[in-house]
């Protein structure tokens, strides 16, 4: 039992530090969870909503039956096998406030270490870049180049080398969502929350910004005192203005705005190529709405569609749907898509019943 819990704590600690680091510990927690399941059968409590995860895995495996590219399909199923064992964790993680808090504490420590490590690496990269710049001929020019080009190292995906910036942003939102439910009673808590907001700002994840805005609005509406509510609304408006002036966000808006004026679609920015992937995926879904194209063939069919539509950039880089909902629909059809959506709906219903 101790190994089960310690494996979970370590996995949460390592989530922001490396994409593959927590995997062995999550696997260990599942293995020891299975051992406990057979050893303590009387304590075994099945959480029915968690069965949606293995149901989704079954749909991925079923998609192999009508896939020609079995190598790609088997690789996907192999990478998704944790969905089959994931409910084991839910069978033993009770809604105990102290245990839940410990999980979030470990995740918070991991985020703090990750932030410090990224700041150190970005600073080092920026200094090396500036020192090699031919424009430098004195102290003022050194500072000028640093002020001009700092965002290339401190903003966006370049600021998070070990884990995708979008993933880190989600972890930050999880921690913020948990801790902001309670009052901040110490300076250390204010400092930690401030670091998390700064980290989120520098990561420049558009999706995370949208979710943060929704979270903030919900928090504001939960405040009963009108004067406090008005003050929070002003702070929220100022925060929105600040986040929208992030250098990477401004670039995103410029790219999206010019999308419709671009005639040559062969060369595309990441924003435009993503829209093209969504467009191609939607067209394919219309042709095979019930079962999709199979776990192994979904990407191959998508590549052919890129070629047919003239999306050369997407074809060259072999982009998938770049959207889990569309990708799942292409792989498993309507049934798999419905199971995926049910996971979020059921968990949201549970969230409404219990804050833990």
How would you briefly describe this protein structure?
The protein is mainly alpha-helical and 356 residues long.
Structure description:
The chain has 356 residues and is an all-alpha fold. It contains 18 helices and no strands.
Layout of helices and strands:
Blueprint: H1 2-14, H2 23-39, H3 52-62, H4 70-79, H5 82-85, H6 87-92, H7 97-131, H8 139-149, H9 151-154, H10 165-179, H11 187-203, H12 206-221, H13 226-244, H14 247-257, H15 270-287, H16 298-309, H17 312-317, H18 324-353
Defining key terms:
72% helix; 356 residues; mainly alpha; globular
Question: How would a crystallographer describe the biggest sheet?
Answer: none
- Strand tally is 0
- Low confidence ranges: 262-267
Number of helices in the DSSP assignment: 18
Radius of gyration: 23 Å
Q: Calculate the terminal CA-CA distance, rounded to whole Å.
A: 21 Å
Order of helices and strands: HHHHHHHHHHHHHHHHHH
Arithmetic mean pLDDT: 83
* Broad shape: globular
Strand share of the residues? under 5%
Q: Fraction of residues in helices?
A: over 70%
Classification by helices and strands = mainly alpha
């Amino acid at each position: 039992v101790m190994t089960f819990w310690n494996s979970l704590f370590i996995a949460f600690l390592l989530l922001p530090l490396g994409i593959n680091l927590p995997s062995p510990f999550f696997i260990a927690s599942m293995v020891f969870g299975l051992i406990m399941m057979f050893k303590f059968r009387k304590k075994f409590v099945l959480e029915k909503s968690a069965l949606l995860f293995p149901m989704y895995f079954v749909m991925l495996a079923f998609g192999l039956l009508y896939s020609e590219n079995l190598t790609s399909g088997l690789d996907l199923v192999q990478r998704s096998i944790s969905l089959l064992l994931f409910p084991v964790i839910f069978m033993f993680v009770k809604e105990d406030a102290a245990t839940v808090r410990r999980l979030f504490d470990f995740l918070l420590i991991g985020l703090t270490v990750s932030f410090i490590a990224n700041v150190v690496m970005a600073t080092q990269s920026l200094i090396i870049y500036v020192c090699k710049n031919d424009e430098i001929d004195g102290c003022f020019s050194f500072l000028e180049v640093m002020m001009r080009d700092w965002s290339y190292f401190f903003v966006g995906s370049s600021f998070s080398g070990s884990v995708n910036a979008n993933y880190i942003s989600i972890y930050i939102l999880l921690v913020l969502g948990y801790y902001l439910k309670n009052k901040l009673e110490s300076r250390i808590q204010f400092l930690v929350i401030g670091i998390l907001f700064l980290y989120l700002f520098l990561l420049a994840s558009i999706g995370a910004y949208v979710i943060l805005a929704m979270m903030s609005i919900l928090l504001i509406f939960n405040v009963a005192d009108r004067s406090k509510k008005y003050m929070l609304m002003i702070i929220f408006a100022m925060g929105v203005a600040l986040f929208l002036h992030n250098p990477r966000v401004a670039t995103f808006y410029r790219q999206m705005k010019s999308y419709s004026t671009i005639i040559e679609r062969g060369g595309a920015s990441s924003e435009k190529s993503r829209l093209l992937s969504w467009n191609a995926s939607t067209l394919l879904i219309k042709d095979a709405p019930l079962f999709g194209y199979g776990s192994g063939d979904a990407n191959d069919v998508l590549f052919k569609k890129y070629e047919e539509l003239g999306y050369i950039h997407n074809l060259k880089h072999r982009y998938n749907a770049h959207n889990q909902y569309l990708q799942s629909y292409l792989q498993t059809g309507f049934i798999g898509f419905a199971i995926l959506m049910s996971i979020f709906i059921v968990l949201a219903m549970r969230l409404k019943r219990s804050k833990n």
